[in-house]
Specification:
alpha+beta; OB fold (Dihydrolipoamide Acetyltransferase, E2P); 3 helices; 42% helix
Length: 204
């Protein structure tokens, strides 16, 4: 039973960490800009998936949010929001939402004369939750087959795995050197007490 609880905890923790990383780490899409728009949004129970309100605006208050309408090379549409992250989480320190909106408006194109753009973003698109990935940076690329290597993700995940491995190795060594001998001594004392109590009852 304890093994089942242990593995359930490990799997739940892995899913939680994986979900947090998948949401917050940057990803890239090659798209064609269809158009831009500005919507009045009042974040409610899904507010955790939106950036903080701009300075001077109250949290939860109706505010303008930029959106970028795009099309993937396969023709499917994809919508991004364009909000500043400021000094909040995730730590992209983005303060250029207005500049990006002007940039993508200038990069808009038609299917007959496409201009392909790389969009660096984080977050998820979910229709039920009404949430959109947030565009962090956009730039023009030569074509729809342009490959972008996620160097940041590679370095970040490599360093994170190395740190977790180093900490786990030290914990295991500490357990074998200090904790396990202490537990063994405790077991020996408990066994000795039990043997003493058993002999006392037999003497009775």
């Amino acid at each position: 039973m304890l093994k089942i609880v242990k593995w359930v905890f490990i799997v739940a923790l892995a899913l939680l960490v994986g979900g947090v990383l998948h949401y917050n780490l940057p990803r890239h899409d090659i798209v064609r800009i269809i158009g831009t728009e500005n919507r009045r949004v009042t974040p409610g129970w899904n507010s955790m998936f939106y950036s903080n309100a701009e300075p001077g605006s109250a949290a939860g208050q109706v505010r303008d949010v930029f959106f970028i309408n795009t099309a993937l090379p396969n023709g499917r549409e994809r919508v991004f929001r364009n909000e500043d992250t400021g000094w909040g989480w995730p730590p992209y320190f983005k303060f250029s939402a207005y500049d990006i909106q002007a940039q993508v408006a200038n990069l808009a194109s038609t299917a007959e004369a496409p201009r392909w753009v790389a969009v660096r973003h984080y977050g998820w698109r979910n229709q039920f939750l009404t949430i959109f990935p947030n565009a962090v940076k956009v730039w023009e690329v030569p074509g729809p087959d342009t490959r972008i290597i996620p160097w940041f993700n590679i370095i970040f995940l490599t360093v994170s795995v190395a740190l977790v491995w180093a900490i786990a190795a030290r914990v295991i060594r500490w357990r074998h050197r200090r904790l396990q001998p202490a537990l063994d001594r405790l077991d020996q004392r408990i066994d000795a007490r039990r043997a003493g109590i058993s002999r006392w009852f037999k003497g009775k």
